[in-house]
User: What shape does this take?
Amino acid sequence: MDFKKLGLRAGLEIHQQLKTKEKLFCRCPPEMRDFEESSYQFFRYLHATPSELGEVDVAAEEEVSLRRKYSYFGYDSTCLIENDEEPPKELDRESLEIALMIAKMMNMQIVDQIHVMRKIVVDGSNTTGFQRTALIALDGYIEVDGKKIRIPSLCLEEDAAQRIEGDNFSLDRLGIPLVEISTAPDMESPEEVRKVAERIGEILRSTGRVRRGLGTIRQDVNVSISDGARIEIKGVQELEMLEEIVRLEAKRQLELLRIRDELRRRGASVGDVKEVTELFKNTKSKILRRKVEEGGIVLALLLRGFSGLLGRELIPGLRFGTEIADRMRRRGAGGCFHTDELPGYGITEDEVTKLREFMNAQENDAILIIAEKREIAEKAMEAAIKRCKEALQGVPEETRRAMEDGTTRYMRPLPGAARMYPETDIPPVKITREMLENIKIPELISEAEERFKKEYGLNEELARKIARSENRFLFERVVKEFEISPQLVVRVIEEIIPQIRREGAKVESLSEEHFMSFFKAMSEGRFAKEASDEILMKWCEKPENDLTEILEELGIKGGTFEELKKFVKKLVEERKDFVKERGERAFSPLMGMVMKEFRGKVDGKIVSEVLKEEIRKVLEEG
Amino acid sequence: MKEGDRVIVRKEGKIYEGILMPERDGFIVLKLDNGYNIGINPEGAEIEVLEEFRSQEVRKEVLEERDGLPLISIVSTGGTIASKVDYRTGAVTAKFSPEEILELIPEMKELANYRGRSLFNILSENMRPENWVQMAKAVYEEIKNGAYGVIITHGTDTMGYSSAALSFMLRTPVPVVFVGAQRSADRPSSDNVVNAVCSTHVAKSNIAEVVVAMHHTTSDDLVAVHRGTKVRKMHMSRRDAFKSINATPVALVEYPSGKIKVLGDYVKRNERELEIYPKLEEKCALLKFFPGSPPEIIDFFIERGYRGIVIEGTGLGHVSAEWIPHIKEAVESGVLVTMTSQCLFGRVCDRVYDTGRDLLRAGVVEAEDMLPETALVKSMWLLAHYDLEEAKRLMKVNLVGEINPRSTGGAEFGF
Assistant: This one.
């Protein structure tokens, strides 16, 4: 597809959680919890009059009018503020600082005074019925491949509660700070969308102050082509899918336009709805029979000139008929049939003929039928009529949900103007000159990667690894302050630490200062690098101890390790033939000999590692 | 240029367009088209009006009377059971007329016909005893004019004082229900809907007493009906802040079913004739004793001509020995001195320790298991309607459910 020719325009909206000590409006830790750890539960209804929501969508109205009951699960790490039982605290300054830093990196105009707003959301994901959000900066841009991509707004907002299942929500995520970055629709190809998303991701991670891992970043994308419509696609989890989603959406819009042109050529129109329950009185179709037996009726809609088009595939797995069916489902219907797929589903040729006769259908006409309770059937037919009329116009504007395979499905109409009003419980924050001057713009990951190669002689792989790591700033601190091999520091940070984490060590109990004293001791030769994992694992268990105590406990004293190495080397050297003869089985007898000498001085695991290493060396000699 | 105008602000080569909002800390506040407000430092900023604000006529819904539904009167005192947000300006306006309340809480429509009366619009911390008298008179008139039940919307801070005051001043043959909200009515999560709907169920019920109807739990499942003299706001912000002290609630109302589960005795509808005794002696005070607190405070009230003093003592109802001569002097000069306890839960007993016995000898009246606030209101009411000796005697007698003669109550409701 030639996207330029199609007039593709796409924009992004990126939500990124920030790495802070506290939540945005309360002092709870921003920790995600296991649902099993929940310690209490309560439930609420949310009340908002439909007129306040200004939504025409029936489903949205249903959310408030049907008195939906939302259950919330709390933890010992949540408080009355998440429960909407206490006024919020002031805006977290650490979060604001990070948001300002990101805004500056995107060349944005920071507002003089920040006002927290309430954005009405009544789907239950916020206990308050609104999301707190503040506009931090305007009118920025980033450059990608020499092209300016405009960033009209950056907002700082609280994350919503996580939906566990149905209308049950977990309160751990509610209130975690996140930034919402919106781009203008400046991207003109799927590839460019991916590149821009990657660049924004890089900028965010370059701060070292955003959360990483599953669910910490979410992207929405909006797509349109010439003569098409603005479609918002929500919930893209994987960056890799972005390109495919944009490509398929462009294709979908193109196909819808082709269908429109064909319909216009045929002089198509949307006809009448008639009740046809009687025609299917003795039907073999199980679905129809069941619905009618349950008190439902069968309605049919005549679509003049639509024949063959309902079954036409827009993108893989999505036919034009699916689009209509999705709309009907939103009104509570289970599904529909159309003549492009009939006879079938137990509906016979004879029934189709009778239906066509009854509806007075010509060869070019299609018929859509639905079996539901009268109220649902009528509402669903209204939705179908609306969608078919839209097909005569082209592409309807809507919000769609991203599926795992890159396709999208109808979610709801585009939201109207955001329903926002001031959060009166939180005072506005004045952005002072001092605050702005204190923001240091961090180096971009890609720049750091290049510099690490030059400055520290790291190879491609190590430079890439550490530049992308959350521990990039720790790495630089270590190599700047201590005489230590940068390669070694990267290995410890990027290989040994993840490895002991996999083995169950609670690495998060060690702070940056723990690591600083660890590398200091390493640079002073107080232990050998082979002992790193043992020491760190022990320290994770007892983070309150200082390093000397840990080393003592492991029997590592200054010099002991060197003694051990010397001893082992000599021992293996002397028994080279024995080792060569027995191979790895030489380990046990030799281990006994070493331990005789070093028991109580050096931890057995360390002895075993050193010994294994020496044995391997001899064996490799061949 | 005024709030609500559509304006352009030019500053340092930047242009902002939006609706002008009330200024904050000297900053120009604009509502942008995306709904967000931003503050702009006015230094070097130029404002140009694009379009002047014109207020829109509000279409008023006409309330249909429904056959077969009882007439409930809603008396508003400033508690905003219903309010509406103007998304254009962010302003929150309280709604008082039944039409407006029903537009915002449509669930109430099915339950009754309504008559509204906007008595005053006062934050409850600004209420004064004279307002309680006005409230009692208004409710009296509403009942006289045929109300099947009365709902009083009230701020939550001093709701307990008002409900106690009306309990003493009114003999009501129908339910008189105080209701409020702990979360403001402008948020979708407000407790106003559940409280208002359940208070309507109570107003239609057989419980002909002055009661407070507020959330019983943090969930939207139950509303507790508290006797007006036994209820106290026990939490600053939670929905279930209101608790019955030294008593079980009169009833619980299930939401959304409206089913009422009665938990104890109550005065039934039309069991008594409508009467009003709307006088209060305002020269009454409530004092909290604390270690080292100066007893001269008593002298101050004597000098100012106060006629009743309620003391919130420690434990079983104690003050330090140095207070006793001052209290004695107060009693001798004709002041009704009543002892309650900071513990709130339990019953005052000044016969256990020496200090207590000295207090009794000085002429202090034990308030039994009454709340300090209720004892204060009762002092005001007794001193306005009886002579001192009779007031002293009645202080210890249960008149309208303010004293529970037996200390019952399980752990389910406090103690």
Notes: DSSP finds 22 helices and 23 strands in chain A. The longest helix of chain A spans residues 239-266. Chain A has three domains: 3-260, 267-395, 445-621. Residues 53-59 of chain A have pLDDT under 50 and may be disordered.
